[in-house]
Specification:
globular, 212 residues, 47% helix, five-stranded parallel beta sheet, DNA polymerase, domain 1
């Protein structure tokens, strides 16, 4: 997209790697420790067992997910499994919270995250402990989670649903995500996109666009 927000009226944010910091390797290592193995083929950077995908689109609830995880990982308590699964969730910096509050006053802002019920509870607790907010809802006009939508990125239909439900004009809507493949789905739905990275993080992006 052009280096400007002049035509943008709506912004859709990803969550993990954009608003909340993530380290997926922490979960992988925690699973290794629980399994007592050097490798846990059910979960790594490129391969995920089917239960993770099903959990992410709400095809199974938390108890069923934990039962399936126990079969794959080995004998462990629910608490141990939840702690390992949530180990990837790090912090939500205050400056990002403040930026989201400011942007909500200037644009229609939305959140769209591929997530699941256990992570939902986990990042809400992080938000409450760090910032006194019971959830992300006050920071956006509307929030979309894959496990409640029963749809996930990068499916074009998921973006079209958000567009249609909120009467958004795609050409006036910016989508930010840290996964290039998700941006492809958004662009196919007509949205403008920006890839978020450690170097091109939210504060950098909006400070740069504000001066363009």
């Amino acid at each position: 997209m052009e280096n400007s927000l002049k035509e943008i009226k709506n912004i859709i944010f990803d969550l993990g790697g954009v608003i909340i910091n993530l380290d997926m390797n922490r979960t992988y290592l925690a699973f290794q420790q629980l399994a007592g193995k050097n490798e846990v083929p059910v979960f790594n950077y490129t391969v995920q067992h089917e239960i993770f995908k099903r959990f992410e689109v709400g095809d199974m609830d938390s108890p069923e997910f934990l039962r399936g995880l126990r079969v794959l990982i080995g004998n462990a308590t629910n608490e141990e499994l939840i702690t390992a699964w949530n180990a990837m969730l790090l912090d939500i910096p205050m400056e990002r919270v403040e930026l989201l509050k400011q942007l909500k006053e200037q644009y229609r802002t939305f959140l769209f995250s591929n997530t699941n019920q256990i992570h939902y509870e986990g990042f809400n607790q992080i938000l409450l402990d760090a910032h006194g907010l019971p959830g992300l809802e006050p920071l956006f006009e509307k929030i979309y989670f894959s496990h409640t939508m029963r749809m996930r990125k990068p499916d074009v239909a998921s973006f079209k649903r958000i567009i249609e439900e909120n009467g958004l004009i795609p050409e006036e809507t910016l989508f930010l995500d840290d996964t290039a493949g998700h941006l492809e789905g958004a662009r196919a739905a007509g949205l403008k996109t920006i890839l978020v990275s450690d170097e091109n993080h939210l504060l950098h992006i909006f400070s740069k666009l504000a001066t363009a």
